[in-house]
UniProtKB/TrEMBL annotation:
<dbReference type="Pfam" id="PF00069">
    <property type="entry name" value="Pkinase"/>
</dbReference>
<keyword id="KW-0067">ATP-binding</keyword>
<dbReference type="InterPro" id="IPR000719">
    <property type="entry name" value="Prot_kinase_dom"/>
</dbReference>
<dbReference type="GO" id="GO:0005524">
    <property type="term" value="F:ATP binding"/>
</dbReference>
<dbReference type="GO" id="GO:0033209">
    <property type="term" value="P:tumor necrosis factor-mediated signaling pathway"/>
</dbReference>
<keyword id="KW-0418">Kinase</keyword>
<keyword id="KW-0723">Serine/threonine-protein kinase</keyword>
<protein>
    <recommendedName>
        <fullName>IkappaB kinase</fullName>
        <ecNumber>2.7.11.10</ecNumber>
    </recommendedName>
</protein>
<feature type="domain" description="Protein kinase">
    <location>
        <begin position="1"/>
        <end position="245"/>
    </location>
</feature>
<dbReference type="GO" id="GO:0045944">
    <property type="term" value="P:positive regulation of transcription by RNA polymerase II"/>
</dbReference>
<dbReference type="GO" id="GO:0008384">
    <property type="term" value="F:IkappaB kinase activity"/>
</dbReference>
<dbReference type="InterPro" id="IPR008271">
    <property type="entry name" value="Ser/Thr_kinase_AS"/>
</dbReference>
<dbReference type="GO" id="GO:0008385">
    <property type="term" value="C:IkappaB kinase complex"/>
</dbReference>
<dbReference type="InterPro" id="IPR011009">
    <property type="entry name" value="Kinase-like_dom_sf"/>
</dbReference>
<keyword id="KW-0808">Transferase</keyword>
<keyword id="KW-0547">Nucleotide-binding</keyword>
<keyword id="KW-0963">Cytoplasm</keyword>
Length: 295
């Protein structure tokens, strides 16, 4: 099977290396990957928001193809999103399908332990922590959780859930996951060993315009929803991405700081109602600002 559509790393050629039939794949050369971008000093607090929006646009295209072919990637993370610098801007492509799996449908139970600690959903984390394959997971449960973790790190520069001994502490990570409130989008362990949960981004992180942060916060709340009845399907995730990508940006001059800031118009959203309600309530009580719309 060849994965050649846009937003997936292209295989250019393959070569049989020895008499046993071992095959080497020759792939297109990338300029970087999202993990490397996040290590740059200027991205310490997260990627620029226009870059993040472009990343989401390209990522959902690649994932939509995988979904249509019933393929679970199972190791989504910043390092597995390649960057190609082109005249019309960055192109992002998924790579590393070594742990991928073809499924019969989106509800097929999977048991293999695949992926990277820190990006694993609750059941894979539990299986890894307790050296078992007892707890099943589905394609969407695996990949959408990893997408949420990946995009959260892209938006803030840090992982959302951090056990006391780091992400390699799978027992500690599993304990965090099963104790996490349903609406918490991040958390850490305090010096005295308590879990500290937040419904908003970590303080000093996600330095985006307020209106865009509202939308992102709702996006992550849905991606990290632990309630089975309201958990995202891939179709709803893709629809939310399309709404997010399509938000109209209006340059707004904020008189309190004497600077322009992009205002993201959420008046037509259908899947981000909580973000819209929070924004309307806040705008009724905050600083006056003048704005100009650039058509």
């Amino acid at each position: 099977m060849e994965l050649m559509p846009p937003r997936l790393a292209e295989i250019l050629h393959s070569v049989i290396m020895n008499t046993r039939g071992s095959r080497a794949l020759i792939m297109e050369l990338a300029d970087s990957n999202v993990g490397d971008e996040l290590h740059k000093l200027e991205n310490f607090f997260g990627l620029p928001y226009l870059m993040l929006i472009r990343l989401i646009s390209h990522l959902v295209q690649g994932l939509s193809y995988l979904n249509s072919e019933k393929i679970a990637h199972r190791d989504l993370k910043p390092e597995n999103i390649l960057i190609f610098n082109q005249p019309d801007g960055m192109k992002f492509k998924l790579c590393d399908f070594g742990g991928s799996r073809i499924v019969t449908d989106n509800c097929q139970p999977l048991h293999s332990i695949c992926g990277t600690p820190g990006y694993l959903n609750v059941n894979i984390t539990a299986n890894l922590a307790h050296n078992t394959k007892a707890l099943p997971y589905t394609k969407d449960e695996c990949d959408l959780w990893s997408v949420g973790i990946t995009l959260f790190k892209c938006a803030t520069g840090v992982l959302p859930f951090i056990p006391a001994n780091g992400c390699a502490d799978t027992v500690g990570m599993h304990s965090m996951m099963i104790n996490r409130p349903a609406d918490a989008i991040c958390g850490h362990v305090s010096e005295d060993g308590r879990f500290v949960w937040e419904k908003d981004f970590p303080k000093g992180r996600c330095l985006y315009p307020r209106t865009f942060r509202r939308v992102l916060r709702e996006f992550f709340r849905r991606l990290f929803d632990k309630r089975e009845a309201t958990r995202l399907t891939f179709e709803t995730f893709a629809a939310m991405c399309e709404e997010l990508i399509g938000l109209r940006r209006i340059p707004v001059f904020k008189t309190n700081i004497m600077l322009f800031e992009d205002y993201f118009d959420t008046s037509h959203v259908k899947l981000f109602e909580n973000a819209l309600a929070a924004l309307v309530a806040e705008l009724c009580a905050v600083d006056f600002c003048c704005h100009w719309t650039i058509s």
